[in-house]
Amino acid sequence: MNLMKENMKNKKEETILRELEKIKEEAINSSGKKYYNISIKQIKKISPTLIFSVFILYYALL
After folding, report:
1. 34: enclosing H helix or E strand
2. Transmembrane region positions (predicted)?
3. Conformation bin of residue 57: beta by default, left when phi > 0, alpha when psi is -120 to 50
4. Residues 15, 53 contacting (CB under 8 angstroms)
5. pLDDT per residue rounded down to tens, the chain (62 residues)
6. What is the pTM of this model?
């Protein structure tokens, strides 16, 4: 049972990371370092998915 919970947790984490990868934009600041910029519009677009995923993760860990 614990293995099943762990697998569910890992899948949900992977889903969240994939969604974040889709919306991030790579940029380079003036010092030449890379950073990732996510706009408020992008966050609003993905927030329902993230909230649902966090909710599922929380209950999967109980």
Report:
1. strand 34-37
2. 43-61
3. alpha
4. yes
5. 688 888 888 888 888 877 777 666 665 556 666 666 666 676 667 677 777 777 777 777 76
6. 0.38
